[in-house]
Automatic annotation (TrEMBL):
Naturally occurring in which organism (per UniProt): Rhodoplanes roseus
GO molecular function, one term: glycosyltransferase activity
Residue ranges constituting the Glycosyltransferase subfamily 4-like N-terminal domain according to the UniProt record: 14-165
Origin superkingdom: Bacteria
Record-linked SUPFAM superfamilies: UDP-Glycosyltransferase/glycogen phosphorylase (SSF53756)
Keyword annotations from UniProtKB, A to Z: Glycosyltransferase, Transferase
Name of the molecule in the record: Alpha-mannosyltransferase
Family matches, as Pfam families: Glyco_trans_1_4 (PF13692), Glyco_transf_4 (PF13439)
Length: 351
């Protein structure tokens, strides 16, 4: 079964959506499926206002439809709501093809924080966008419930995973900084609420990995913090392993893959008691969530790495991929695709 995923989020962007989609593609192959991507690669792009590192594709008329037809997928999944996602959605509707979508980003919150766009307006548009599909996938139980409460139809949970072979404790790694080392990883942008972490009076060291439009201002305002810029692969895994506590100050994330990466590296989590963070850590003794973020950081430093690692070991990309494929079956698009494949085989036999 060949699945096409249409996504506006792609390299060189560094975010959870891109990492999720790449990890999914690797995991589904052992389950009898393959994934092709429809991305901004090869298309003219323009920078998103106020966020130049994110560029939006401007495909020529008919280009997305031509690319979909050339790939010839059995199933189409629309992962993002940008120009590529919108045009893939429109092509499916015009050709009578059922499709699924996924909800990765709180666009209503992010748009309201950057531009004078009422959140209700964005939510109405998102509802219109996703309800045209056969199902919408969301990462956590609380997000599923929220979307259902906002009028999204047929919302299914699609959990995430972590590469536990890459992200693991490494006793030989040391940043050479005063301990404890409090670490935050992610886009350095206003919606990540990093100032809530950087303004804390904490012992040891504060380290930020990532880049984004707020980096220069935050680095100037907090000279005591070490900003390492973007890190990937082994370099990123080594920074996790060299820290003592992972601090997640975001209040708007839908999931936070970095939480799983930190836990797999043996890091306890400190954060606010918001739905996305609670959904990831559950009742496991691997995190301290408190409206007093400083208290959460200090308390989390006492948590041993062993339960953190053990908890992350239960959250694999293989299981995430199985759930994704099960959702395609539950939405009816897998069965429909099998029917089309059977019809094609019958025509070939008759010919």
């Amino acid at each position: 079964m060949r699945i096409l995923i249409a996504t506006d989020a792609w390299h060189p962007q560094v975010n959870g959506v891109v990492r999720t989609l790449r990890s999914l593609a690797g995991a589904v192959e052992s389950l009898g499926a393959s994934i092709a991507f429809l991305t901004p690669e090869g298309l003219r792009t323009v920078a998103l206002p106020s966020y130049p590192s994110i560029r939006l594709a401007l495909p020529p008329p008919g280009e997305i439809a031509r690319r979909i037809d050339a790939i010839g997928p059995d199933i189409v999944h629309v992962a993002t709501e940008g120009p590529i996602g919108h045009l893939a959605r429109r092509h499916c509707l015009r050709t009578g093809r059922r499709f699924t979508t996924s909800f990765h980003t709180r666009l209503a919150d992010y748009a309201a924080a950057r531009w004078p766009i009422p959140a209700d307006v964005t939510w109405a548009w998102l509802r219109w966008f996703h309800n045209a599909g056969s199902a919408t996938m969301a990462a956590t139980p609380s997000l599923v419930a929220e979307l259902q409460g906002r009028g999204f139809r047929k919302v299914m949970r699609w959990p995430r995973g972590v590469d536990v072979s890459l992200f693991r404790p490494r006793s030989e790694v040391d940043l050479g900084l005063p301990r404890p080392v409090f670490l935050s990883v992610g886009r350095v942008a206003v919606e990540k609420n990093l100032d809530a972490f950087l303004a804390l009076d904490l012992p040891g060291s504060k380290v930020v990995v990532g880049d984004g439009p707020a980096r220069a201002a935050l680095a100037a305002a907090h000279p005591d913090a070490l900003f390492l810029g973007e890190r990937h692969g082994e370099a990123l895994a080594e920074v996790y392993a060299a820290a003592d506590v992972f601090v997640f100050p975001s209040r708007t994330d839908t999931f936070g893959l970095v939480l799983l990466e930190a836990l797999a590296s043996g890091l306890p989590v400190a954060g606010f008691p918001v739905a996305a963070t609670r959904d990831v850590v559950g009742d496991a003794p691997v995190a301290v969530l408190d409206e007093d973020l400083r208290a959460a950081c200090l308390a989390a430093a006492a948590i041993r790495p062993e339960p953190c690692r053990a908890y992350a070991m239960t959250l694999t990309w293989d299981e995430s991929a199985r759930r994704f494929l099960a959702n395609l079956q539950g939405a009816g698009v897998w069965t429909e695709a099998q029917g089309r494949l059977g019809d094609r085989r019958s025509r070939l036999v008759r010919a």
